[in-house]
Amino acid sequence: MSNKEKISTNQFVWMLFGIITSFTVLQIPGILILHAGRDAWLSVIVAWFLDVLLALVYAYMGLRFPGQNFVQYSMTILGKLGGRIVGFIFPLYFLMVTALLMRAISTLIETNLSDMPKLVIYSMGCITIAYTARKGIEIIARVCEILGPIYLISLFILFFMAIPIIKIDRVKPFLMEGSYPFLSGSILILSFIGICIMMAMYIPVCNHPENGFKAKFIAVTMGATMITTLIFLVIGAFGAEQAGSMVNPGASLAREIQVGIFERLESVWLIVAVGAGIMTCVNLIWAFSMGASQIIGLNSYKPLVLPATLIATVLSIISFDSNIEMLNFVFYVYTIIAVFVQTGLEMFLFAMAFILKKGAKKSS
């Protein structure tokens, strides 16, 4: 990557916002509601608080090791061999999330456009993701800067138009099952909000790296607000039991809205949601390719983009026989992996940087 490629703080925010909300809005609300019931929205608030605390660590490490992402400062802290082993786990995690998100997007499209063959869906997605990721971080950032506000506005419109079908009695009473369901549910939602550990890849290419925490705080606050509102409205519209059985509660909510000429609002929401999901895949593939190229020692990440996209596509197709299998994986396996990578590895690097006295003592 050219050293001249830079993103602004504003672009930083919109890129993270898309990453936080795209996968989480698509399929996770149903799983969370199934687990935490009508208190699922409280899980998002707890997850937001924990993620903000974690963001402080990532922002600090980005300043302690200026110009380096977590793949690079893994090698600075632990040496070439140990650093490569630990550092490569981050790109592998991004590749896994890409495969899961591609599967979620294809499921959304299949559900609403059943006549479109799977081969066409995956082929178009693969080509779009690989082509855009090769264009570089500046182009990716500009696209996200345009799509991010559109996605946010579309969610606002969806929520506003859904108000008439909401019944508050379906949301109350609060904490009827105690605190355990929503507290344990916060770990699930945190594992998806926490995908924005991508901030560690953006800080070195941001024209104001000291704004890393500010960008993350704004993005995660906007994202958590949208997710909380969606869960609250879905429960109010369908009830916790019915909402917990839905594969895509957001699309179901849009389908119920019929206001004048707006009788097919889910089609508009589908287009915007798929666009946001694809751009998140682009960011993840860029991050995987960049991190992997730094581990291997390549001068450019671009030769790895197409192979990475093809691998993610194949994994998204063959890894699960059904959507239920994927949701079970997300709930029972992915959460553990995500918490380990997002929190465990970074806290380990944070501690080792102090123990081994690595990195700048002061940020400039």
Tell me what you see in this structure.
This protein has helices spanning 9-26, 28-36, 40-64, 70-112, 118-134, 137-162, 180-193, 199-202, 212-238, 240-243, 249-256, 265-296, 305-318, 323-355. It is mainly α and 364 residues long. The chain has a single domain, classed as Amino acid/polyamine transporter I (Up-down Bundle). It starts with 8 loop residues before the first helix and ends in a 9-residue tail after the last helix.
Brief descriptors of the model:
single chain, 364 residues, mainly alpha, Amino acid/polyamine transporter I, 14 helices, globular
Produce a short descriptive summary:
75% of the residues lie in helices and 0% in strands.
Tell me the distance between the termini. Answer: 24 Å
The outline comes out as globular
Rg calc: 20 Å
Mean residue pLDDT:
88
CATH topology: Amino acid/polyamine transporter I
CATH superfamily: Amino acid/polyamine transporter I
The profile of the biggest β sheet is: none
CATH class: Mainly Alpha
**Structural class estimated from helices and strands:** mainly alpha
Helix content: over 70%
Poorly predicted parts:
none
The portion of residues forming beta strands comes to: under 5%
N-to-C series of helices and strands:
HHHHHHHHHHHHHH
Number of helices: 14
How many domain units?
1
* Strand segment count: 0
